[in-house]
Amino acid sequence: MVSSSSTPAAFVTGAANGIGEAVVARFLAGGYRVAMVDLDADRLRAAREKADPAGERTIEAVADVTDEQSVRAAISATVEAFGRLDAAHNNAGITSSGPNTHELELSAWQRTLDVDLTGVWLCMKHQLPVMLEQGSGAIVNTASIAGHIGYRNAAAYAAAKHGVVGLTKTAAIEYAPQGIRVNAVSPGPVQSDMLEASFERRGAAVRDWYYASSPTGRFASLEDIAHAVHWLASAEASFITGHCLSVDGGWIAQ
Ligand SMILES: NC(=O)c1ccc[n+]([C@@H]2O[C@H](COP(=O)([O-])OP(=O)(O)OC[C@H]3O[C@@H](n4cnc5c(N)ncnc54)[C@H](O)[C@@H]3O)[C@@H](O)[C@H]2O)c1
Fold first, then answer.
1. Which residues make beta-bridge pairs with 185?
2. Is the CATH code 3.40.50.720 the one for domain 9-189+224-246?
3. One of 32, 157, 175, 211 is an active-site residue; which one?
């Protein structure tokens, strides 16, 4: 049974680093309590100590978003700790850029689809019943510009992120009558470890191409994405559902 409590609660996956870590900080600044969820236990502990040194407004849940049991346990722990679930940011993801489509190994294809698409769906599968019981809630999934356009050398990633867009729109229309909103953010290149790792694999020419292809001449900051996620989850966005908000400095407007 979901009990009522006036302080809102959020659930963020991929919370140990990058975008997820910044989103945790934004939700805390917005007055939420936050469940920080990640696969990497050590990094998660360090991120939590940084975000909430007193440990009073957060919980940490080590979970692999591809594993239904650990997802269910993380969501149960959130509801047990906070008594509610107002906002969920399903953000954990990996990249698989590198080879052309026919050179991709089946294992890499499957792992990318498992984390980037099935992981988002599994989180929603177990968040939605809590929100249905409350009669409210806002879900924000992390898609990507690769969810809207072809993305050379990243077939699995692009397929997964297009899937996140379809999943987001479908859930939005299914649950709108019950007061639950489902949206996505579609970041362009973000100044992040994930992007740096990709450049290290793919070389300086790729980094230069990304800068040259950015209409603003810069990449997003982690905070650029965090503000958008927080806003989509907020009451100010109460009539927005099924939307994929590009936070890409105009990348896919080109
Ligand atoms: N960085 C970018 O430029 C960029 C651009 C567009 C979209 N995105 C998307 O944003 C999201 C976050 O990216 P980021 O740049 O912060 O990456 P990141 O690598 O810095 O952080 C991702 C976090 O997810 C966690 N994670 C990975 N697999 C997991 C799993 N199976 N279960 C639970 N946690 C897991 C990692 O431990 C890590 O802490 C991803 O979905 C990514 O596809 C990133």
1. 142, 245
2. yes
3. 157
CB 171 within 8 A of CB 139: yes
Model confidence pLDDT, tens digit, residues 215-240: 999 999 999 999 999 999 999 999 99
**Across-strand partners of 181?**
138
Query: Cβ(91) to ligand 1 under 6 A?
Result: yes
d(CA 15, CA 181): 21
Distance 93 CA to ligand 1 centre (A): 4
CA dihedral 44, 46, 50, 54 (to 10 degrees): 90
For residue 219, the CA-to-ligand 1 centroid distance in Å is: 16
Out of 111, 194, 210, mutate this one to test ligand 1's pocket (max ligand atoms within 8 Å of CB): namely: 194
Indicate whether residue 14 lines ligand 1 (CB < 6 A).
yes
Residue 122 near ligand 1, beta carbon < 6 Å: no
Locate the ligand 1 atom nearest the alpha carbon of residue 119 and give its number.
31
User: What is the maximum span of the chain, computed from C-alpha positions, in angstroms?
Assistant: 55
Question: Is 157 known to be catalytic?
Answer: yes
pLDDT tens digits for range 86-144: 999 999 999 877 789 999 999 999 999 999 999 999 999 999 999 999 999 999 999 99
DSSP string, 157-216: HHHHHHHHHHHHHHHHHHHGGGTEEEEEEEE-SBSSHHHHHHHHHH-HHHHHHHHHT-TT
Tokens of 105: 């190994």
Q: Considering only CA atoms, which residue is closest to atom 2 of ligand 1?
A: 190
